[in-house]
Design goal:
Shape of chain A: globular
Strand content of chain B: over 45%
Largest sheet of chain B: 7 strands, mixed
Strand content of chain A: over 45%
Radius of gyration of chain A: 13 Å
Order of helices and strands of chain A: EEEEEEEEEE
Shape of chain B: globular
Order of helices and strands of chain B: EEEEEEEEEEE
Helix content of chain A: under 10%
Distance between the termini of chain A: 40 Å
Distance between the termini of chain B: 36 Å
Oligomer: heterodimer
Strand order of the largest sheet of chain A: 2-10-9-4-5-6
Radius of gyration of chain B: 13 Å
Number of helices of chain A: 0
Structural class of chain A: mainly beta
Largest interface: A-B, 20 and 23 residues
Chain lengths: 115, 107
């Protein structure tokens, strides 16, 4: 059974940093790209970032480019989203998802950026 | 970036109705389109991938069609469990983008 378990998140001040983690099980982790998607309160889904299975390629939405980094440790079946220079508008539930088609999702973790 | 536009934004319908939601891309995305269902406070669920392929476990009343720039999600006979918000997403080219969502509500 495929499972994605997220950790991290919480309250952070504007300009601060936070790291989200997503640990996978039930599939060959290194064979799949991994994606982060976020959803601001009461808003729609926003694609944030993606990393290839080998970590060779990473991609970011313009809204987070230069502030967020994505990485993965295939030995730990874990993908990370390092968020820096956080803004109030980064407040959202963040989801990790498997592959480009996002066929499995983590449970989501709330990131609140507020002073 | 490719822009995805869904219509309508809100759709009111009754149990048993046949409904369709349209998603238009600002440029061709071939068939690299997915549809998701999300209920309040829940994780999005993949329904359709590659424009028309039904994800395993998804009821056959859901279907997807289209290619290029215009796509449609159809629910053949609405069930009470189907009232939710639906999103399309292109994964043809980065940044992958979602439509703004269509809220399907009970009439």
């Amino acid at each position: 059974e495929v499972q994605l378990w997220q950790s991290g998140g919480g309250l952070v001040q504007p300009g601060g940093s936070l790291r989200l983690s997503c640990t996978a099980s039930g599939f060959t982790f290194s064979d799949y790209a991994m994606t982060w998607v976020r959803q601001a309160p009461g808003k729609g889904l926003e694609w944030v970032s993606c990393i290839s299975g080998s970590s060779i390629s990473t991609y970011f939405a313009d809204s987070v480019k230069g502030r967020f980094t994505i990485s993965r440790d295939n030995s730990k079946n874990t993908v990370y989203l390092q968020m820096s220079s956080l803004r109030v508008e980064d407040t959202a539930v963040y989801y990790c998802a498997k592959g480009s088609e996002n066929d499995y999702w983590g449970q989501g973790t709330l990131v609140t950026v507020s002073s | 970036d490719i822009q995805m536009t869904q219509s309508p934004s809100t759709l009111s319908a009754s149990v048993g109705d046949r409904v369709s939601i349209t998603c238009r891309a600002s440029q061709s995305i071939n068939s690299w389109l997915a549809w998701y269902q999300q209920k309040p406070g829940k994780v999005p669920k993949l329904l359709i991938y590659k424009a028309s392929k039904l994800e395993s476990g998804v009821p056959s009343r859901f279907s997807g069609s289209g290619s290029g720039t215009e796509f449609t999600l159809t629910i053949s006979s609405l069930q009470p469990d189907d009232f939710a918000t639906y999103y399309c997403q292109q994964y043809n080219s980065y940044s992958y983008t979602f439509g703004q969502g269509t809220r399907l509500e009970i009439k």
